[in-house]
Each structure stands twice: as C-alpha cells, then as structure tokens.
Write a structure and sequence with these properties.
The chain is mostly helical. It has a domain of 113 residues: RNA polymerase sigma factor, region 2, helix turn helix motif (Rna Polymerase Sigma Factor, Chain: A), CATH 1.10.1740.10. It has 8 helices and no strands. Helix 5 packs across helix 8 and helix 7 packs across helix 8. The longest helix has 27 residues. It is globular. The N terminus is likely disordered.
Length: 195
C-alpha cells in the first residue's frame, strides 16, 4: 500500500512504469494525488460527489489503457492529463443533459485534447459502459468483490474479512476467478453485438 498524499514522492515516470509492470496498487496513488481537483471541478459545475467519482474512474481507465500502449507518449503531467480527460467527459455529459450553466469553473491546468484523443475517449467510455453492464450480469459475490477492490479500493484482507474467506490469498484467488468470468462474459457480450 502506498503512503498518504503528503508522503507520496513518485514521479510521473515511476507511476507509469509501475502501471506498465502491472502494479495496480499505484492506481490508489492516482486517486490520492489527483481526485481532489477533478472532484472540485465536477462539483463546481453542476455535479455531485458520485458524479466526480464516476468521471474520475472513467478518466483513470482511459489513462491506464493509453499508457499500456507502449507507443503512447504523454505530452503533459499525469495530473493535467487526468484533469483534461475528466473535464472533457464532464462537459460532454452536462451538455448532453442540458444542465450546463454560463461559464465553466476550472481549478487546474488542462490541455485541449485533439479530435483523435476525443474519439479515443468516447470509444473508451463506450467500453466502460459495456463493462458496467457485464458487471451487472456477473452475479454475486463476484460483482461485489470486483467493485470492492477496484472501485471502493478495499484490500484483500478487508475483502477476505467481509466475505468470510480464511485468508487474503483465498480472497485473491476468488477475485482472479471473478475477473476471468467477467472477461469471458465481456467477450461473449461483444460477440453478440457483432452478430
């Protein structure tokens, strides 16, 4: 587990390297370091705390998927990128819902994303929506285990206690099985859409 925000001294390069080496625990670092500015932006522009969490999680997924592509070259700081993606997603959402007020209150530096980047984000938003639907089909306890780990950021010890597993390793094994079921359902769902 990574330390609290004031003690985190990881560079952007270290964070990217950790993610590319499948160290998913660094996702907690992203949340601790950068969620605040996104939350402030969303809540200052007609959103609530749940909206902010949803938008930030989607932005982290976009960032994660992009950096897993070895050809992806981040041209700004992670903080700026996450804020920019979150900002774009939130503006599109409030525009779609026609709840936009005059003027947008920004609280962090952001970059204007290119049309290709915007299209890629839309594609990843669609993927996120599909994954959310598939997660609903997954059933219990898998749905809750996946949500507890990836969304609520519970660790394996907490999950094992919650579900009554004998130890964290058993919970980890169950999480792995759940992920494999989720993956299988997702690709089955994708095949249905192609038919």
């Amino acid at each position: 587990m990574y330390p609290e925000k004031k003690e985190i001294n990881l560079s952007d390069e270290q964070i990217i390297s950790a993610l590319r080496n499948n160290d998913d625990s660094v996702l907690n670092v992203l949340y601790k370091l950068y969620f605040g500015s996104v939350s402030h932006f969303v809540m200052s522009n007609n959103g609530n705390a749940d909206d902010a969490k949803d938008i930030f999680q989607e932005a982290v997924i976009v960032f994660y998927q992009n950096i897993m592509d070895q050809n992806f070259d981040l041209q700004c700081k992670i903080k700026t990128y996450l804020y920019s993606v979150s900002r774009l997603m939130w503006l599109k959402k409030i525009k779609k819902n026609s709840t936009m007020v005059n003027g947008i209150a920004d609280f962090s530096e952001y970059v204007v994303l290119t049309e290709n980047e915007s299209e890629a984000i839309e594609e990843k938003e669609l993927l996120y929506t599909k994954m959310t639907h598939v997660l609903q089909e997954l059933g219990e306890p898998c749905k809750t285990i996946i949500e507890d780990f990836y969304i609520h950021q519970l660790n394996m010890v907490e999950i094992s206690e919650k579900f009554g597993y004998t130890n964290a390793d058993n919970a980890k094994t169950q999480k792995y099985k759940c992920l494999m079921r989720l993956k299988k359902l997702f690709f089955k769902h994708e095949e249905k859409l192609k038919i």
